[in-house]
Amino acid sequence: MKFLCLECDQVMEFAERQIPGDGTLAAVFVCPECDREMALLTNPMETQFVSSMGVKIGGREVPAQPMEGIRTSLDEGGEKAFTEPVGEAAGNDPSVPAPPGAPSVVWTPEAIERLQRVPSFVRGMVKRIYTDYARERGIRTLTPETMDTARSDLGLEGM
Amino acid sequence: MRKFRTYGEVEHSTGSELLEQVLDQRDRLARRLAEVGTIVAVASGKGGVGKSAVTANLAVSLAARGHRVGVLDADLNGPSLGRMLGVVDAGLEDRADGVVPAEGPRGVRVISMELLQDREDAPLRWKEPNSDTFLWQSSMEAMALREFLADVAWGKLDYLLVDVPPGTDKIRRLLELVPTLPVALLVSTPAEMSRAVVLRSIRLVREAGVPSVALVANMTEYLCPDCGHRGSLFRGDGVRRLAEESGLPIWAEVPFDPRLGEATDRGVPPAAEQAANPVAEAFARIVARLEEPPGPDHEAPGSPSGSADPETSS
Ligand SMILES: Nc1ncnc2c1ncn2[C@@H]1O[C@H](COP(=O)(O)OP(=O)(O)OP(=O)(O)O)[C@@H](O)[C@H]1O
Ligand SMILES: [Mg+2]
Ligand SMILES: [Zn+2]
To answer: Which of A25, A36, A87, B162: CA 20 to 30 A from B247?
Structure first.
């Protein structure tokens, strides 16, 4: 899928992705030359269909998580399906191993509290995504604000 | 009329192409399956013939012989292998490199929808919209099967058994993801009713070029748990006729044994436990056939493979 700005004969760049509600997915593309913007809106069926293929319109900012499709699409995901990662309370999840030399990311109690409100069915993967996000940007302390920024930066649909 | 350049002519590379993502997905699947030895589909087309019970008992029988075995319950709507392998209450470990499968008897690694849903009676429902439309369901099911194959940290396996749900289209879904499927076992009962459906499945796996296709006859005779008396359960002999019509070998005939059913449903598939009984022998035969190096099948169609006692064949 490519969007061409006919005026400038330029391929528009993916800029932003949002889930404004109702299962709609909005993907914004911008012309690098004239800055004209356009939004691609998908209906709920199309949104889910794209996500069922495990692909993201505009590209992926974060690597695909294990069973991401099932975990974000299943209606009644088991609250007891996944074991709590060890060390979660400390905000240091060994299942998100820091690459050698990389500082570990510490979650503030407020951030952990907010993470606990995420259904446990997807909590592990959500935690990993935020931790990676923080690590990649050199953020050592992960706060609820970091989560907000990450959410909109990464366009986390349904998480 | 305006003249557009083609997609390929419009240069642009941000690495965001959907196709690239799909290819990347395919790579992930290939990397995961590179560690898996032989994938065995246990299918039928027909419901209720004992596919899941055969899968569970075959898994423990293979594991008892020292093989590393994984079981993938592809029956998303009517999963049963979590229960049959006694792992329904196991919590899955969620790791960056994959979801760690539950560990059942003899170290058999299991993934099943039963492990992902809390309530036993929870119907498989995907988030709205239109979760009842056929297209929707099937795209979700294809996604789930792909993730069960690619996103489970199977580790090194000698065998991965896939319990394929009833319905002839379901085996096709597996073949789309695993086009080089090496073995398909088609379970059938002597009841004539199942013949037509199983024939359709046979045709599908043959057309897909699955090199090793065999029949497992289930509930061929009644085995009285008290006196060991054997009698027939069904009139006719549908599986032999099936073997003749299709030219497929019957790898084993599993008798109807109430103890087998009861113990399997309780989560302790008994095939590997008892030494010398017709059920254990039947599964030992399938194991022996799977252990044979792949090659053309010299078996005369219709005759159950000869005595392949694990004691003597090892
Ligand atoms: N040889 C056997 N002797 C006794 N009971 C058996 C035998 N084979 C299967 N059963 C029992 O019959 C029931 C149905 O078998 P099973 O669930 O394995 O069938 P299935 O083909 O997987 O069904 P479905 O199509 O619904 O998935 C189960 O309770 C099972 O334990
Ligand atoms: Mg079954
Ligand atoms: Zn422009």
So the answer is: B162
**Could you tell me if B149 and B180 are in contact, meaning their C-beta atoms sit under 8 angstroms apart?**
no
| β-bridge pairing A4-5 and A10-11 | antiparallel
Q: Give the residue, out of B42, B46, B52, with the most ligand 1 atoms within 8 A of its beta carbon, to mutate for a pocket test.
A: B52
Question: How many residues in chain B?
Answer: 314
Q: Which residue has the tokens 């002519």?
A: B9
**Token pair of B202 as six digits:** 């046979």
Q: What is the pTM of this model?
A: 0.85
Residue A130 carries which side chain, given as an amino acid letter? Y
The answer to whether B125 contacts A74, with C-beta atoms less than 8 Å apart, is: yes
Cβ pair B174, B148 in contact under 8 A: no
pLDDT, tens only, B82-138 = 999 999 988 899 988 899 999 999 999 999 999 998 877 777 887 765 555 667 777
Please give the distance of CA B60 from its chain centroid, rounded to a whole number: 14
The residue assigned the tokens 């911008």 is A30
Cα B95 to Cα A67, A102, B277, distances in angstroms: 11, 19, 42
Cβ contacts of B193 within 8 Å, gap of 6 or more = B46, B238
With beta carbons less than 8 A apart as the criterion, state whether B76 and B165 touch.
Answer: yes
Take residue B216 and report the two structure tokens written for it: 């497992």
Chain A closest-CA separation from residue B33 CA (Å)? 15
For each of the domains in chain B, give its residue range(s) and CATH number, in order of start.
26-290 (3.40.50.300)
Cβ within 8 Å, pair A78-B14: no
B183-188 and B212-223: which strand pairing?
Answer: parallel
This complex has an ipTM of 0.79
User: What is the tens place of the pLDDT at every residue in B281-301?
Assistant: 999 999 999 999 766 554 444
